UniProtKB/TrEMBL annotation:
Membrane-spanning parts: 9-27, 63-83
Pathway membership, UniProt: Porphyrin-containing compound metabolism
Protein name as annotated: Heme A synthase
Main subcellular localisation: membrane
CC per GO annotation: membrane
Assigned keywords, A-Z: Cell membrane, Disulfide bond, Heme biosynthesis, Iron, Membrane, Metal-binding, Oxidoreductase, Transmembrane, Transmembrane helix
GO molecular function terms attached to this record: metal ion binding; oxidoreductase activity
Membrane topology: Multi-pass membrane protein
One Pfam match: COX15-CtaA
Gene Ontology biological process terms, A to Z: heme A biosynthetic process
Compartment(s) of residence: Membrane
Alphabetized InterPro entries for the sequence: COX15/CtaA_fam, COX15/CtaA_HemeA_synthase
Biological source species: Paenibacillus pini JCM 16418
Length: 94
């Protein structure tokens, strides 16, 4: 993995984390926090949620948050294994 790929992985991680944070705001403002009930990862006992606004908002936030967590873990592992050189990290952060 080269520095350009690591830089794009950093951008992707940032975007997914931003979307997860924004989705959390939408869930809070629309009071959709219990749209799927207390069950996880299922939504009201089903893998595909019922077609209500609250459950769709909550379930989409769960999916985006899961994707954000996955990209964050992948980014940490890639930086750990491929960016051991301090100069590479400085380039990516610039």
């Amino acid at each position: 993995m080269n520095t350009k790929q690591l830089k794009w992985l950093s951008y992707l991680t940032f975007i997914t984390m931003f979307c997860a944070t924004f989705g959390g705001t939408v869930v809070t403002k629309t009071e959709s926090g219990l749209g799927c009930g207390h069950e996880w990862p299922l939504c009201q006992g089903k893998f595909v949620p019922a077609h209500t606004i609250a459950s769709l908002i909550e379930y989409s936030h769960r999916l985006v948050s899961g994707l954000a967590g996955l990209t964050a873990v992948i980014a940490v592992l890639c930086f750990w294994f491929f960016a051991k050189n301090v100069e590479i990290c400085e380039y990516i952060l610039s």
